[in-house]
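testing teh design pipeline on a random one, pls ignore if ur not involved
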């Protein structure tokens, strides 16, 4: 059953209409989720005890990710549902939600109480202690206080390192430690209470179950609430309307600024920086949102709510100082901010073009066939660049590119091959479809490398694997994520309503197909293996599809494909030269040491709670590595293409370009990709 034309599985904005009165009957939602998946999922799992176990484990993992809330005693009570969810949910029995909710709230309140009874003196900040990193749960309530005491001590060290980064040797005063202790206790208890202090008592437990039962089919089939769907639409819309702050939840469960949108009010504030922590948000009516007491999803929902047009944001800078900013919601067109970066790398008269594409995109989701996306944008750039002078080599950087519309990836592959199979799409109940180069002819036929890492996924993997199978480019970096599936967003309907009154009560992002390489193999779970490997700092953290619950298996499709491979590339010679350079390169040697240290941390059964160990662990696991911030010696000059140096450019675009250029001078991966491209030019002349 092909429910989207060709292979574009993106969402038409005109089809998104929803009701603000979401049904809170969990069994209605469960019935809709399961029936929609049964109708449209590419390969729906049988709803049996194995599915039930996965759904239950995912449910518990969201409610209690660190296994510090439910005890073994609690699990003896609710663990009976691990193999019963399938039978209960199918029969329309959702009573287990109330039971889990009651135990959950009781445990949260109990932990709040014991935290209040953990005195500063009992923390004993100077005594060397260890946390046991065990996958088993706390035995019972009597053992909880000791577990939480050590956890609070660990959090105190995290906060101390954040507030006083240069005080490891000198130490903190008693007053400073006591202040940190009070702050941590208040913050943790506020966070625990926020899990159930909502207008809808069962919201957290219910919503987490709905996500769990959908994710038990595969990692990309996921229930979306109304607010999550709104957030999705705001991200794919051509016009971004926001305060200008992208946020993440950091190690200390604080809301940290991860990016600032150029042209926004946050951007014009100038002193707001990535890494700043949002402490409070004060609305015009005087209500203060204390972010440490809110769930991350609640904060993102508030920030994406268009009715919130202005507010005062209280931010804590990295030096510990606190500052207020009056920010307003504003509109910034993506046309003013390129979805890609282009630079010229020149040395010895050779001109290598570098293009970074963070994601595949289209400007208008109303018509999937309009040539109005990244493929068209980059094609125009390559044509302009070729008119400005000869292009001796090309580097396409797809690191951290998680994908996007696959049709754009097909179009981009078509720029570099003359004709032939680019991939194969397979939908449920349909014959596999050959995905062909949509345009005959080649836009650029010269030497080419593609940079990838473990976070390159989906459409990025289609692009890289197609060029690899055609022998059209050398793939450089680490094995990609391994997502070879196709999704679409489908509405969930409340079938109890009259047809003329029916409105969606939620949505589900559903896996409806797979894509395969030109050679008929899949990237699912296995990813795209690079021709030339470079160490990846994320290797220690198992960032890959194959580690996800219920991931669809790897497979090969029986479909004859037709494509003409180019001449064999000198992969062995390129690999050997790169290995020799990496052995001499101090930055890559240091990176390898950090990767090995991080792997060691992840394998430890116990964790030393000390300033030096917490500091080292945080640096290793957060990717906070100083040499990534160090300007490198480069064998080439970096410059913007001539046609991009426009006098009418706004100040914020110039500032953004300056920041990007600074990053280019510190990127050891680009430097090595440049060396490999230079070697490729020599080998193929």
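output:
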């Amino acid at each position: 059953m092909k429910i989207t034309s060709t292979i574009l599985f993106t969402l038409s904005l005109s089809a998104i209409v929803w009701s603000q009165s979401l049904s809170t009957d969990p069994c209605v939602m469960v019935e809709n989720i399961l029936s929609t998946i049964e109708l449209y999922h590419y390969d729906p799992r049988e709803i049996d005890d194995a599915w039930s176990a996965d759904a239950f484990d995912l449910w518990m993992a969201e409610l209690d990710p660190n296994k510090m809330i439910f005890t073994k005693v609690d699990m003896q009570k609710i663990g009976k549902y691990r193999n019963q969810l399938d039978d209960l949910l199918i029969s329309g029995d959702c009573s287990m939600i109330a039971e889990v909710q009651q135990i959950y709230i009781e445990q949260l309140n109990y932990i709040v109480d014991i935290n209040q009874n953990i005195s500063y003196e009992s923390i004993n900040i100077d005594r060397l202690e260890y946390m046991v990193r065990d996958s088993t749960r706390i035995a019972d309530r009597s053992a909880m206080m000791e577990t939480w005491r050590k956890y609070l001590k660990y959090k105190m060290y995290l906060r101390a390192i954040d507030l006083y980064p240069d005080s490891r040797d000198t130490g903190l005063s008693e007053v400073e430690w006591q202040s940190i202790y009070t702050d941590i206790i208040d913050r943790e208890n506020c966070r625990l209470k926020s899990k159930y202090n909502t207008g809808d008592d069962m919201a957290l437990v219910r919503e987490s179950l709905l996500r769990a039962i959908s994710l038990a089919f595969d990692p990309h089939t996921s229930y979306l609430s109304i607010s999550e769907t709104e957030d999705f639409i705001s991200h794919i819309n051509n016009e971004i309307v926001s305060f200008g702050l992208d946020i993440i939840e950091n190690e200390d469960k604080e809301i940290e600024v991860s990016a600032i949108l150029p042209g926004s009010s946050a951007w014009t504030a100038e002193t707001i920086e990535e890494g700043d922590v949002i402490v409070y948000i004060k609305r015009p009516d005087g209500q203060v949102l204390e972010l440490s007491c809110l769930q991350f999803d609640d904060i993102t929902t508030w920030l994406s709510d268009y009715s919130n047009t202005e507010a005062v944001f209280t931010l804590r800078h990295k030096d510990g100082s606190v500052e207020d900013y009056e920010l307003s919601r504003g509109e910034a067109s993506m046309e003013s901010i390129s979805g890609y970066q282009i630079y010229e790398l020149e040395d010895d008269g050779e001109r290598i073009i570098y293009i970074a594409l963070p994601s595949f995109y289209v400007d208008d989701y109303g018509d999937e066939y309009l040539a109005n996306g990244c493929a068209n944008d980059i094609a125009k750039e390559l044509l302009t660049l070729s008119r400005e002078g000869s292009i001796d080599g090309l580097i396409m950087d797809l690191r951290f590119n998680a994908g996007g519309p696959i049709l754009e990836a097909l179009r981009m592959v078509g720029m570099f091959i003359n004709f032939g199979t680019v991939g194969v799409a397979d939908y449920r109940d349909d014959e596999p479809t050959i995905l062909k180069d949509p345009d005959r002819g080649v836009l650029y036929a010269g030497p080419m490398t593609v940079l990838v890492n473990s976070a390159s996924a989906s459409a990025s993997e289609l692009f890289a694997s197609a060029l690899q199978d055609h022998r059209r480019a050398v793939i450089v970096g680490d094995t990609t994520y391994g997502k070879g599936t196709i999704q679409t967003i489908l509405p969930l309907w409340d079938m109890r309503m009259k047809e003329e009154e029916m409105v969606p009560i939620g949505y589900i992002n559903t896996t409806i197909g797979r894509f395969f390489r030109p050679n008929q193999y899949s990237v699912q779970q296995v990813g795209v293996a690079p021709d030339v490997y470079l160490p990846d700092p994320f290797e220690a953290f198992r960032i890959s599809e194959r580690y996800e619950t219920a991931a669809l298996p790897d497979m090969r499709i029986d479909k004859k494909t037709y494509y003409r491979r180019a001449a064999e590339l000198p992969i062995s010679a390129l690999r050997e030269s790169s290995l020799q350079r990496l052995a001499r390169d101090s930055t890559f040697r240091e990176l390898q040491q950090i990767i090995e240290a991080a792997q060691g941390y992840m394998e430890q059964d116990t964790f030393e709670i000390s300033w030096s160990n917490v500091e080292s662990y945080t640096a290793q696991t957060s990717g906070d590595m100083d040499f990534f911030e160090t300007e490198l010696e480069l064998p080439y000059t970096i410059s913007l293409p001539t046609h991009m140096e426009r006098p009418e450019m706004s100040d914020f675009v110039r500032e953004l370009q300056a920041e990007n250029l600074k990053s280019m001078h510190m990127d050891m991966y680009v430097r090595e990709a440049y060396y490999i491209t230079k070697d490729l030019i020599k080998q193929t002349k």
